[in-house]
């Protein structure tokens, strides 16, 4: 274990007060059509400390689109990272200024997305073959703002997937001043696999990311790919500085309920699932009062009761009622009642079976 790793884990716990350089030991990964502002606000009701990311937003959208819609966020969502897709240093620098002016805590450059649309724009994973261009982009952004600039990338692309290829990429980009790298521990095939297949088919190579941290101990290295629990995350702190959890955070968001206590060392009691749902009432009512569809918020809440009795009743009621005209927090309250009714019925049935077996 390197001296840097030892300092980071500190008995597998790192307090939030110690995190003052823009880094963070646990993150929810940026995910298209998932990590919008409503999902992020929802996650903040579960964990106050875990670092959250926006969906990837292109430089063109930021420079020419509806910034309030694309970049707006609630103060409760912080610490918050804006992930940007682009390859033009001048445009990226201007986007960085916009982000810093809005109060984002960090800017992350996407060098990991393998979709055809992203490749056609010459950004995402294809930029791993152009480390000098990425270095210029990072340098331009760092000159433009004082908040941290990070890069999220793969361990390789196509046939450029040897460890030495990734190490060369990181070396060139870090020499331009980048100090934070989030590494998806799978390579990406730019042709032949869909973005979904690129998240599953290429094998995970955690050892390559561990080696990267050993070879670049002065850099902050975050590992991503395949993690589904905080226990798995804590097991990684021996080798890297941070862990990023993606799909599992969306499919089972409540797994983060103990993060503030178990990862950040806070003396806090995790919220119950019911408390998380109830904490969304006022937020939902503020948005629906302005004509916003409740479904656009509750779609991110469907998996709150994953793994516990009543989850089907919860998801069914929200799915069938959140799109109705006038739907507001009362729909969530009714869905909670369905969960309670189901759980009560299960308890009664369990008691009956126990009595019969005596």
Feature tags:
358 residues; alpha/beta; TIM Barrel; Four Helix Bundle (Hemerythrin (Met), subunit A); 2 domains; 18 helices; disordered N terminus; RNA-binding; tRNA_hU_synthase_CS; nucleotide-binding; tRNA-dihydrouridine(20/20a) synthase
What does this structure look like?
InterPro entries: Aldolase_TIM, DUS-like_FMN-bd, DUS_fam, DusA, tRNA_hU_synthase_CS. Catalyzes the synthesis of 5,6-dihydrouridine (D), a modified base found in the D-loop of most tRNAs, via the reduction of the C5-C6 double bond in target uridines. Specifically modifies U20 and U20a in tRNAs. Keywords: Flavoprotein, FMN, NADP, Nucleotide-binding, Oxidoreductase, RNA-binding, tRNA processing, tRNA-binding. Its cofactor is FMN. This protein has 358 residues and is an alpha/beta fold. α8 links the parallel β5 and β6 (180-184). The chain folds into 2 domains: 3-262, Aldolase class I (TIM Barrel, Alpha-Beta Barrel), CATH 3.20.20; 273-357, Four Helix Bundle (Hemerythrin (Met), subunit A), CATH 1.20.120. Strands 1-2-3-4-5-6-7-8 form an 8-stranded parallel β-barrel, surrounded by 5 helices. Helix content is 45%, strand content 12%. α5 (89-102) packs parallel to α7, α15 packs antiparallel against α18 (329-357) and α17 packs antiparallel against α18. The protein has helices at residues 3-9, 37-44, 59-64, 67-71, 89-102, 116-120, 131-144, 163-175, 195-198, 206-215, 230-236, 247-251, 259-262, 273-278, 281-288, 295-298, 311-321, 329-357, and strands at 26-28, 51-58, 80-85, 106-111, 149-154, 180-184, 220-224, 242-245.
